[in-house]
Amino acid sequence: MKRAFLFFIVLFWVPKLHAQVNQTQQMVIQFLDTLQKNAYMGKSMQWDSIRPAFIAETRHINEVNQLKPYFEKLLKTLKDGHSSLFFEETGQDKESEQDQFEKMAVMTDKEAGIPPKNFQHYMINSKYAYINVPPVMLENRKYVDTIGIQLKNLDAQEPKAWIIDLTENNGGNIMPMIWQFPSLLDTDKTYAYIDSQGKETTAITYYTVESPEDLTYFQLFQLEPDQVKPIKLRHNDIPIILLTSNITASSGEFFTAHFKGQKNVKVIGQKTGGLTSGNAPFNINKNCMVMLTTSVLKDRNGKVYKIAEGIEPDIVFPIDMKPKNGKTKLTYNEMQEVIKNAKQRYIDQAIAVIENKSGR
C-alpha cells in the first residue's frame, strides 16, 4: 500500500512540475520578446547575447514567483528609468483570474495602500481659478468626475486666469488626467510620441474610439468617450499658468507638454523630473505585466526629449533643495515636503506673472 501511494504521488506530481517549468520558460520567452520588440532602449541592447544568457540563467527556475527579481534586473539594464514591473506572487500552479491591467482598472487607492488624492480647487482674490491636479493611477472614473466638478465650479465664478498646479503630480495615467481640459487647449492635437523606429504618434486632446481594442480599454475604466464627455469651459481665452516642480514627472510632464508652447500659457517653477518617455502596458501573463517605455516626447515646438530629460519652465522659480545635516541628497519625501511648504510662494509667483508685476 505504501509503494502504491508513493507511485500515485510521483505519477501526478511529475506532470505538474513539467507544466510549471514550461510555464516559467514561456514567461521568460514572452518577456524577452516583449522587451526586444517594444522597448525604446531595446535598440541599444545586444539581444543576440542577452537572450541566450537570460534563458540559461532562468532555466533552473520552476516556480513563476521566482522570476520576478530576474525580470526586474533585466528591466534595469534598459536604463530608461521609467519601465516597471507589476507582478502578483501566487501559490504554485495558480494563475490569477484577471490580468494585472484589469485589476488596476477596478482597484481602489485604499486597496493598493495609496494615500487619498489631494484634490483642491478655489478662487484666489475672487479672480483667479486655482486647481491642483494630482497624480492618478487608480480610480480613473472617480478622478475624471471630480476634476470635472471642480473645473465647472471654477468656470462659473468668471475667472480672469487659470492656475493649474502640477507640483505634486508624479504621474500615472495621462488619459483621466487631461480628460476634462480640452477646452483650455487651442488645438485638437498637441505633442507627439516617437518610438524606437522614429514613428510619430500625435497625442489627441479629445479621446475617441478608433478600434474595438479602444472600446474595450475605455469600457474597462468606465470612460466611454460618447458617454463621458469633457466639460466645456467658457473661460478659455484667459492666461493659463502651469506650476511645475522637480517631482512633476511622467504623466505630469505630458500634461505640461499638452499646454507648453500655447500662446496664453506660461509654465512656472522648476525643471521637471525627467520621465518624458511614454509607457505602455504589456501582459506577460495574468500574473505579470510590464509597463514598458516605448517612446519619447516631441513637444509642440518640435523639441525631442532625451531619456531622463525634464521640461524647462518658461519662468524659473528657484526653491532651496539643498540637503541639510550633512546629507548629500534629499529623499523623495523630503523633496515633497519642501515643495508643499513653498506652495504659497508658487501661487504668489503665478499671480505676479498674471498681473505682470514680475516684468516677465
UniProtKB/TrEMBL annotation:
Signal among keywords: yes
Signal peptide coordinates: 1-19
Pfam families: Peptidase_S41 (PF03572)
Domain Tail specific protease as annotated: residue spans: 116-318
Domain of life of the native organism: Bacteria
Presence of keyword Cell membrane: no
SUPFAM superfamilies referenced in this protein's UniProt entry, alphabetically: ClpP/crotonase (SSF52096)
Gene3D superfamilies membership: 2-enoyl-CoA Hydratase, Chain A, domain 1 (3.90.226.10)
SMART domains xrefs: TSPc (SM00245)
Alphabetical keyword list: Signal
Protein name: Tail specific protease domain-containing protein
The organism of origin for this protein: Sphingobacterium ginsenosidimutans
